[in-house]
């Protein structure tokens, strides 16, 4: 996502298109607040429009939003940041903010922003390190100090009915926690949820291995291991991480490639979520009696290797995956849990 987003300088003759995009992006929040007025929205934007401070947000070949950053008495003013509704919730705004932050930090400038009271943008800005400094009748004013470090908003939640819609939405967009079986696994889970969502959720926490056999990539089945799955959550569904083990031993059966597997949805990648999720899960692995965990990845998956290394993992061996997984090369990392709190 991050590499696919670019900025493109706006020009005076872009004004009408920018007004239309602003209205499209803001309409729902303004209607909810009882303040929607297309003519007023147009006049308000055009009265302060300065093309030299305005940049289109381009994803691929499509203009999906725009951002306006102007000089301000306190540093810089993030005057506008809008993303088309179709592209909201996909991490576009976060990527844009990160670049604006880098520009502000490079000159040591605080960044100010206003948000319509009651709109979702308040949570968005607070989540990214802005501090509320003033509440006006219609808008909230926020400031981000230069170089502010934003704590990760990510947590691990137990699968539940409250979080299930986010999980279903990710499956419907083609994501799957099964990095090997992919779409086939996603389709199976969607069908299971439609049959009985409550039973599906119950199967995700199965410390007694009472669930059905597990289907491997070649179509064969093996007995389920004790284990559970947690979901990554930052206010939205972000991915899944699972722990499994074998009773009475640290070892795993040959068909099980590792104690832990994780997958982050594509639109939430690049935020350090996999690294944090793994760090949050390690104490739970220790609580289950494990002295170490093994995690496998592919030699070309540098991102996953970095996630594991950041949590104290060391390369244990290079190996050839079992035939059920295609017999391809793999890397097995080990993380010792004796120092995990």
Output the strand order for the largest sheet. Answer: 1-2-3-4-5-7-6
Major sheet details: 7 strands, mixed
Q: Helix fraction?
A: 25-40%
CATH architecture of the largest domain: 3-Layer(aba) Sandwich
Number of domains: 2
How big a fraction of the residues is strand?
25-35%
Encode the helix/strand succession as letters: EHHEEEHEHEEEHHEEEEEEHEHEE
Gross morphology: elongated
Output the CATH homologous superfamily of the largest domain. Gcn5-related N-acetyltransferase (GNAT)
Radius of gyration: 23 Å
The unreliable regions are: none
Number of strands: 17
Instruction: Give the N-terminus to C-terminus distance in angstroms.
Output: 34 Å
Task: Find the CATH topology of the largest domain.
Answer: Aminopeptidase
CATH class of the largest domain: Alpha Beta
Structural class by helix and strand composition: alpha+beta
């Amino acid at each position: 996502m991050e590499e696919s987003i670019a900025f493109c300088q706006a020009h005076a003759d872009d004004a009408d298109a920018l007004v239309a995009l602003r209205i499209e992006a803001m309409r729902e929040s303004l209607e909810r607040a009882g303040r929607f007025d297309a003519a007023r929205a147009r006049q308000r934007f055009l009265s302060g429009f300065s093309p030299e401070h305005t940049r289109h947000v381009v994803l691929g070949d499509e203009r999906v939003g725009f951002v306006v950053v102007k000089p301000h008495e306190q540093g810089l003013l993030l005057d506008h940041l809008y993303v088309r509704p179709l592209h909201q919730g996909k991490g576009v705004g976060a990527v844009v903010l990160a670049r604006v932050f880098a520009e502000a930090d490079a000159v040591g400038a605080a960044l100010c922003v206003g948000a319509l009271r009651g709109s979702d943008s308040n949570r968005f800005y607070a989540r990214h390190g802005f501090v509320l400094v003033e509440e006006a009748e219609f808008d909230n004013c926020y400031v981000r100090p230069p170089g502010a470090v934003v704590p990760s908003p990510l947590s691990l939640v137990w699968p539940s009915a409250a979080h299930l819609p986010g999980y279903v939405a990710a499956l419907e967009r083609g994501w799957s926690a099964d990095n090997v079986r992919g779409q086939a696994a996603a389709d199976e889970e969607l069908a299971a949820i439609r049959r009985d969502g409550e039973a599906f959720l119950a199967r995700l926490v199965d410390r007694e291995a009472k669930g059905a056999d597990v289907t491997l990539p070649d179509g064969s089945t093996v007995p389920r291991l004790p284990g559970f799955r947690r979901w990554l959550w930052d206010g939205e569904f972000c991915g899944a991480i699972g722990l499994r083990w074998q009773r009475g031993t640290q070892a795993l059966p040959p068909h099980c490639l590792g104690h832990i597997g994780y997958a982050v949805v594509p639109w939430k990648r690049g935020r350090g979520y996999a690294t944090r999720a793994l760090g949050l899960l390690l104490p739970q692995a220790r609580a289950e009696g494990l002295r170490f965990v093994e995690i496998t990845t592919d030699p070309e998956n540098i991102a996953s290797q970095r996630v594991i290394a950041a949590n104290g993992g060391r390369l244990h061996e290079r190996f050839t995956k079992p035939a059920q997984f295609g017999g391809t090369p793999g890397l097995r990392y080990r993380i010792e849990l004796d120092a995990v709190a």
